[in-house]
Design goal:
TIM Barrel
Length: 252
């Protein structure tokens, strides 16, 4: 099914090319004149659940809180989430918190941090971000604005190991993120073969048919986030067509 998104950079809703994000900025496809809350209200109107708000660096907290307040319980929040602030984001209206760099520390999964976070908020409110890049024929989790490769492969072992410890996975295919050049079929098939919980894939979608591809290949467990290709983000694919797709197939 279609999952919406709100990507925040420097306090504004943007669509960027994922692999270019750094402290100096990013290659940007689209900068919205509308606030984050406008998108949240739109998603609420259309009963789209499971979308994510991602804070790409500092300076986005106000916009993120406004989005969560506009659609309480309807959006997940990621970017800078840790043990100290996770519960606060849930109190602010997030359905789940999305965590990546804080638990994948120094290239490895920090078991103590993950366990402490689960104890604090519950696995049912946690989404683990396994966004990855391809290297040496394998997919590896990347952190720190998707620039740092960890020693954690995205494979059957890690997917099955982590599934009981979270509610969902979020996986950006960073190498194709924001390029509208097609989804990563191999990654989607890998996820579908080994995930036991819902997973949202993001990266490269550029046509409505991609929803069919992911629905069939993902065996109903993989959802698709579409960003830059949507007309609400300056693209050619009609947002309303994606909403209709979800209604036609009985979910979101």
């Amino acid at each position: 099914m279609f999952r919406p998104c709100i990507d925040l950079h420097d306090g504004r809703v943007k669509q960027i090319v994922g692999g270019t994000l750094s402290e100096a900025g990013a290659d940007t496809n689209f900068v919205s004149e509308r606030p984050a809350a406008w998108y949240a209200e739109l998603y609420q109107r259309d009963a789209l659940r499971g979308g994510h708000v991602i804070q790409l660096g500092p300076g986005n907290e106000t916009a993120a809180r406004e989005a969560l307040a506009a659609y309480p319980g309807g959006l997940q929040i990621g970017g800078g989430i840790n043990l100290d602030n996770a519960a606060g984001w849930l109190d602010a209206g997030a359905s789940h918190v999305i965590v990546t760099s804080w638990v994948f520390r120094e290239g490895r999964l920090d078991e103590e941090r993950l366990s402490a976070l689960i104890k604090a908020i519950g696995a049912e409110r946690l989404v683990l971000d396994l966004s990855c890049r391809l290297r040496g024929g394998r997919y590896w989790v990347v952190t720190d604005r998707w620039q740092t490769f960890t020693e954690m492969p995205v494979d059957e072992t890690i997917l099955r190991q982590l599934a009981p410890r979270c509610a969902e996975f979020l996986v950006h295919a960073v190498d194709v993120e924001g390029k509208q050049a097609g989804i990563d079929h191999n990654l989607i098939q890998l996820l579908a073969a080994h995930v036991e919980i819902p997973v949202t894939y993001a990266g490269g979608a550029n046509q409505l048919a991609d929803l069919d591809t992911v629905r069939y290949a993902g065996q109903g467990r993989v959802h698709l986030t579409i960003g830059s290709a949507l007309d609400i983000f300056g693209g050619a694919l009609k947002y309303e067509d994606c909403v209709k797709y979800n209604r036609r197939h009985g979910g979101n």
